Amino acid sequence: MPPEDEDNELYPEDWDTPIPRELYSEYEERPFRSCTRCGESLLEFAEGYQVAKIFKRGETVFEYALCGPCHRGLIDEFSDESKRRLEDYYNEHMQPGLGGEVCGICAQHRDQLHDPEFALGAMCNGSSLLETFMLCNACMEKTNELVSEKTRGIWGDFINDNFPGVPANFAPDPLGVPIF
User: Strand 99-103 relative to strand 128-136: parallel, antiparallel, unpaired?
Assistant: First the structure.
């Protein structure tokens, strides 16, 4: 059921679309249940949560889910320079509404990618999918070039704090996972 403020554009009419298996946690083999950063139940947040996954050759190689407050907190920590550059880039290049099969920046279909690596981002609320988008590897790399060293350090801290034992060179760059 949508929140009481039905005029809120974050909750489209088809807000009760089930979350597809592709966006489930591979580790838990079910939908994400808790925030990767704070551990709270994702169902407790009226504003919803973000799911992010990176796929390589059809397999998930990295995933996380962030509740609304943790997602905003992580973005707030990014440098002002990174936030400005990313906002400008997304405003100019991002094509909303293409879903998880087409890159939101270059509009290349997933089946036509030369590089078998891509990322999916999703906004969810409870057990419902609100929005999905994909970034191909080439567009992830272009986006990562916009990120400052300060932001890379913040992302490194996020990885170290939430994914112990993951080698630094394995984890994706800050925007290797779509953040919206």
Answer: parallel
Strand spans (E) along 10-155 = 17-18, 49-56, 59-67, 99-103, 117-125, 128-136
SS3 106: coil
What predicted TM-score, i.e. pTM, was given to this entire model?
0.83
Tens of pLDDT along the chain (180 residues) come to: 344 444 444 444 455 799 999 999 998 999 999 999 999 999 989 999 999 999 988 899 889 999 999 999 999 999 999 999 999 998 999 998 899 999 999 999 999 988 888 999 999 999 999 999 999 999 988 988 898 999 988 888 888 888 877 665 565 555 544 554
What one-character DSSP code corresponds to residue 21? G
- Distance set, CA 1 to CA 51, 128, 163 (Å): 20, 9, 33
